[in-house]
Amino acid sequence: MTATAPPVKGKDSAPVDERLLRTSPLRKLLGRPELGSVVGAVAVFLFFAIVADSFLRASSFGTVLYAASTIGIMAVPVALLMIGGEFDLSAGVLVTSAALVSSMFSYQMTANVWVGVGVSLLVTLAIGVFNGVMLTRTKLPSFIITLGTFLMLTGLNLGLTKLISGTVSTRTIADMEGFSSAQALFASHFSVGGIDIKVTILWWFALVALATWILLRTRFGNWIFAVGGNADAARAVGVPVRTTRIGLYMGVAFCAWVSGQHLLFSFDVVQSGEGVGNELIYIIAAVIGGCLITGGYGSAIGSAVGAFIFGMTSKGIVYAEWNPDWFKFFLGAMLLLATLLNAWVRKRAEATR
User: Fold this and answer.
1) Of 14, 201, 282, 326, which has the most beta carbons under 10 Å away?
2) What's the angle, vertex CA 256, arms to CA 203 and CA 324, rounded to 5?
3) CA dist., res. 215 & res. 223, Å (int)
C-alpha cells in the first residue's frame, strides 16, 4: 500500500487530488520496479555479446530463452508471493514432487499418463494449500513453515521413490498411452526463424502476462500489494488476508506442477533428489527483478527480466568458454548489484514525486 500524500493546492488555494496531476514519462519510468533489472539485463547482454562470439547466434538465443524459461515459470509466482510479503522455500523440491507423483501414479496404476498428470495437479495444489493454511493458522513466519515443508518433501521424494521403484529414479513411462500428447503440451519444441523454441517459453510468457494482468488490473492484485505492504492495515480495510496468502501459495504450487510435468516429459524419468537449491534461484530472479524482501513492491515483468539475466549468465559463461565454477560468483554479484541499483532507482523515484 502506498502512503497518501497531503492534498496539493492550486493557484486558488483549493486542494487538488494528486491523482489528477500529470506525471511525466520520466517519473513513471523511474517508478517502475523492473527498471533496475532491465538496465542490468542490457549490461549483461552487451558484456557477453563482446566476450563470446557465439552468444549472438540464433541457436544460442533459443538456448538462453529456454534456460530462462525453466527458471522464469517459477520466478513469476515466487515474485507475487514476495510482493505479498511471504517466501516459499519448498518451491524447488515441489517441482520434483509434482513430476514424481505423475510418473509413479501412472506407472503403478497402469493408467493413462493424463490420469497421473491430473492426480499430480491435485496433490501439488493441496501442498500449496497446506503451506498457506499453516501460515495463516499458526502465525509462524513463512520461512519456518516452508522450510519444514521443504525438508518433508525432500524426505518423501527420496523415501517413497526408493520404496516403490527400488531405486532413486522413476520407471520409464514413454510407452504408456497419452505420453505423446502430454509431451506435446509440456515438453515440445518448434523452430521459428532458425531459433528452436521450447514450449516452456510460451508457458513462461503466458504466465508473465497473466500475473501482470492480475497485479495491475484486478482486485486480487490490489490485495497482494496491500497484504505485502501492511497485513494488519489491509485486514482493517476489509482485505481477505488469509484467502490472499493461500491463493498465492496455490499459485506457486500450480507453476511447480507445470515445471514438474516439463521435467518428466522432457527426460521420461525423474531423479528423486532433484530440485534442492532451486528455490533460492527463483528468489534471486525475483529480487533481481525488483521485488523487495520486505514485500509490497515488485512486478511479474521484473521477475521475467531476472530470469532472463539468469539464462544469459548461465549460458554466456559456457559460450565464453569460461570455467562454469564461476557461475555462482557471477550470480551472487548480480544479486548484490541489482539490489543496490533497485534501491537507488526507488530513491530517485521517491525524490521526484
Assistant:
1) 282
2) 85
3) 9
CA distance 179 to 28: 48
- Whole-angstrom distance, CA of residue 275 vs CA of residue 95: 7
The residue count for the chain: 353
Helix or strand run (H / E) with residue 8? strand 8-9
| Burial status of residue 50 (CB atoms within 10 A of its CB: 0-12, 13-18, 19 or more) | exposed
Whole-number CA gyration radius for the chain: 22
Per-residue pLDDT of the chain (353 residues; tens, 9 = 90+): 444 444 445 444 454 444 445 556 656 666 677 777 888 888 889 989 999 888 988 889 999 999 999 999 999 999 999 999 999 999 999 999 999 999 999 998 888 999 999 999 999 999 999 999 999 999 999 999 999 999 999 999 999 999 988 899 999 999 999 999 999 999 999 988 778 899 999 999 999 999 999 999 999 999 999 999 999 999 999 999 999 999 999 999 999 999 999 999 999 999 999 999 899 999 999 988 888 888 998 899 999 999 999 999 889 988 988 888 777 787 788 778 777 777 776 676 566 55
Torsion, Cα of 99, 102, 104, 108 (10° steps)? -170
DSSP secondary structure code for residue 169 in this structure: B
Three cell numbers, residue 181: 500428447
For residue 121, how many other CB atoms are within 10 A of its CB? 19
Predicted structure pTM score: 0.89
Identify the CA nearest to 215 among candidates 204, 227, 203: 227
Q: Which of 229, 211, 186 is nearest to 307 (CA)?
A: 211
Burial class of residue 132 (count of CB atoms within 10 Å of its CB; 0-12, 13-18, 19+):
buried
Identify how many contiguous H helices and E strands the chain contains and give both numbers: 14, 4
